[in-house]
Amino acid sequence: MNLSYFPFMIAMLKKEFFQYSAYKFMFMMGFYDLFILPCNAIIAGIQVIQGRHFCNNPKLYYWSGVISCGGFYGVTTLCVVLAFDRFLEMSFPRIAPYIFGGAKTYLWMCVPIIYQCYIGFQLPHIFNIKIYAMNQDPFHLIPGMENNPKFHFDSFKVFHTWNNGLLIFFLVFFYGGLIVVAKLKSKIYNKPKISKIQKQMTIQALCVCGEMFFAPLIHIFMNIVEFPIIIEIIAHFSWICLHGKYFA
């Protein structure tokens, strides 16, 4: 699965692309997916096939949860940074170089790494074979073991809901604002004021970040309402697809 990423990532390393901050961010997203997919898709899939519970290998399944959950927080934060970059470059092109130009791009790339390193260890998801999906409680739906205070706590649900809610808000705000500005410019100047490369990068960014809506949205509702297991499976599958964006 992950081998198919390399042609896309190698292509982005070409100077004609990598000189732009947007491609640096998308390249970094590819690295995230290379580490996350083996954990939340391959390891979890093998765990289901073999019927292995968290207790069979707690260290492996804990770390796969840390990488998956921390990576999710990191890549969603990076997606917001990418949306902010696209918004500034197309709406305020004179200001954008002062925010994302040169080495400042790499400083922005440190933000999701710091965020995920802290949150990933504090609030990890761990795969639960009872619901075939990641859950903050690996003993969920196991009589006598669920609601373990070491895993089950309300602060996770509150934080996860805020994280996903803010993600959706910022993506709608930045990309919605970008579309409005593009329309206004075309009306004022009676012709498109967006270069071909800017349009191409924005479409690619929209394709990459557009998949960030469904999975976070459904997980917000899952923190509020207890859904049937089939919905849990769909939610986990949408999480996998979120990190499989290079197949789109």
TrEMBL record:
Record Pfam families: 7TM_GPCR_Srt (PF10321)
InterPro entries assigned: 7TM_GPCR_serpentine_rcpt_Srt
Keywords: Membrane, Transmembrane, Transmembrane helix
Transmembrane portions of the chain: 21-49, 61-84, 105-127, 162-182, 227-247
Keyword ATP-binding: no
Name of this chain's protein: Uncharacterized protein
Organism ancestry: Eukaryota, Metazoa, Ecdysozoa, Nematoda, Chromadorea
